[in-house]
Amino acid sequence: MTRGFVTTRWSVVIAARGGDSKGREALSTLCQDYWHPIYAFIRRQGYAAEEARDLTQGYFVLLLEKSVLHDFRPTQGRFRSFLLASVRHFLSDARDRERAAKRGAGQAAIPLDEVVAEESYRREPHTELTPEEIFERRWAFTVIDRAVRRLRDDSARRGTLEQFERLHPFLTGAGSDSYREAGSALGMTEGAVKVAVHRLRRRYGEMLRREVEETVVDPADVDGEIRYLLEVIGRR
Amino acid sequence: MVDQRRSCGDCGSALPPDTDQCPACMLRLGLGAPEQITASRSSTAAPISDVALLFPQLEILDLLGEGGMGTVYRARQKKLQRQVALKLLSRELSSDPAFAERFLREAQALARLQHPNIVSLYDFGETAGYYFLVMEYVDGLNLRQILLRGELKPSEALAIVPQICDGLQYAHEAGVIHRDIKPENVLVDRSGRVKIADFGLAKILDRAVPTIALTGSGQVMGTPHYMAPEQLTDPRHVDHRADIYSLGVVFYELLTGNLPRGRFDLPSRTIAVDVRLDEVVLRALEQQPDRRYQHASELKTDVSSVSGTAAAPGGKDVEASPAAPRWRSVLRSFLWFTGVWVLSGFAFNAGPVALAGAALLFVAIGLTEARRHFTPAVKPGRGPGHAGVWRRALGTVAAAALLAVSFGLFFLATVNRWERSSDGYVSSPQEPEELLHVGEGAMEELVARSAGPLPESERWVAVHDSSDVMDWPKIYRAGYVWIAAALSLGLGMLAAAGAGGALRPLGRLWLPVAGVCAPALLGLMVANGATAIPRWFSSPAALAPLVSAAEVSGEVTAVSDRLYLALLEAGCTVDTRHRWSVVLPGAARATLGMQLLAGQPESPFNRWKITWTGPRRTFPHVVLTLAGPAAGDRTVVKIDAGRSRVDGEDRARWQRLERDLLARAGPSVEPGSRP
Questions:
Q1: Which residues of B are less than 8 Å from A230 in CB distance?
Q2: Residue A4 lies in a domain
Q3: Does residue A3 belong to any structural domain of this protein?
Q4: Which of A234, B251, B362, B422 has the most CB atoms at less than 10 Å from its CB?
């Protein structure tokens, strides 16, 4: 199973609320991808790094073990809202926390890359942000990150990995190279680079939408979700 | 460590520390369909919560989409509880100083477009730097989405295109050009009705040519495939025929699924459609505007004729522009009323009335034709709105002309005689001095003269020509002219209503009135010759034409028993084949007069009139055919209603006279018997 290319639609999870293995697997994959925001949220609640890691782990264990989804109202429709609501509930419940801490210390339900998570958490200028805001910001970054990863994997499959590595900064014009420089490095004309960047952008856009689509029930919500995340990013 | 205060070079938002790529820009790349991705700078991207603050009167429901020109939200008007589409134009536009003025001008023109096939503009304005349009919300799909589904049948395409034509034709007549007809801008709601969206928006955005941009420099991506050639070469001087070209492209795409690029296949080669459609599509796609269809309505006509009947298959047909059926119905009622008028004129033998009606009829038909030919086209180089103004002006002028003509006809038909009857009696210029005048004396004269041989010049005459008997001034004075004048006025108003002038409200008001009047007129016609006439119709005004008509048929209409006796006594033969004594309730209360109607010096025939004055409700006219004492002498005598009542001493005198007459006639003569 190649990570990042499994169709793990949030809707599959919802559909499998009863808890069949397919739904559980889908949820597990989703959690794996989106635990950074959870970690940041818990961290921002005032827990130390170690504690936060355990709590995050414990939360996922609970989520995957118990059918928390039963309480889920599909009207919410978004994985993001669901996670935030349930982790908040999780933290506020002291007994759950205790139990989770116990469990989390023992087994790792999700392989967490705590170092990276902690680093990116520390880098956030989070002093003025609420835990919820942190959560949502990290969420937006995760979405982008995963979309880029999808694009990268996709490029690898198409055999244009080198092009991707060279050109992905042009997705937003963040690159320091000019098209010409990139072109000479890739053995392409400037015009060809432009076209390639244009295509890359389009493909990236599709990847992003596909990524977001997995976290909503109704595909028609994709635009709304992206818009929401844009707003989250814009808040400061 | 990276500088914490870096910001994105494209959109200006702050960059998070752990990446070089602006997350906002990265997210925006995922918005909208790939070909609609806008450069980050021009994105308006206002979140729903912000928009809700800007528009307290609206409940913003969700985001419908974002395109190059702005963002569209679905919203609900709180008071009206109706759904609308709110379009926020890109904020950048407000930096263009000419924009505000252009926006206002164009939006006002668009707000005037009210058509079932055009998305209505409800409101527009500017708030907090956002220019916005509030439009009709269409619950359905656009043609692009329908095309992408790939289930469009040719018959459905043939049902859609005429509706687009209708919307376009209407807008073109109002002087508005769309400039950006493409599948994305044509919506089909759940009931299958086609609605053209974003009318004139291209003009507002001053986007004569779509710019194809790969990179973000505030430019917008668009597609030139639907643009007429002249839109690319000379975008400032594009006329409505550019829309027809674009419609041709859409039509081709609807039929074949492809764009007519390069050497494209004819539709009938690609799919199973009528070969004649090739002709239609090719003509819409002519490179030269002059060789294309000149009006969307022509395209519609051809499409409809190809698809068999006027109703396109599968689809509900197509209401024509709302003006058309109304015009037709107005014309129909107009023709009907004038027809009634002409017929009734003839039935009453009221020649001029009939002629006037006929003249009006011809004028109306002429105007209808003229209107068809003058239906203004949106001409190249002419600014928006001119055509509409021109059409309205033409309609008003036509209505005024119609009114003038109808009044003129009545003037000609009546007034030259009218002025001769100043005091209620005919006073012919040739009237000899010694002729009798109205009043009791007249009766005495009649009796006296009839008793002996008449002088040659005063022989009673036989009337040969029915028109001689007609007493037009009397008829008009009696009130018929007012009915006719009211009719002409009403019909003129009807014409005005049809022509769409300033008189339209009056025309509308007239419709129910005319609806009552026309059956009444018909009733009068039917009542002509009937014996039982309702009381209202026995007023002089209503009966005058009936009597005239009776005269023409050569029948003696009525005679009073007492008068009959008196005339017998005077030595006259009275033809009383038809009696109508019911309308002469009492000759005793009437005065008789006698008058020469028209003296003809060179002719031995003179026409006399016996004038009879009585209470208003008694019979106003009596026409007698009298045979004079000399062999072969016959005359028609008309007894008419006078003006003055007889009472007091006059009344006593009249009664005396009557008694004398009766005494002379002798008791042996029974009233009402034949001679």
A1: 24, 27-28, 45, 47
A2: no
A3: no
A4: B251
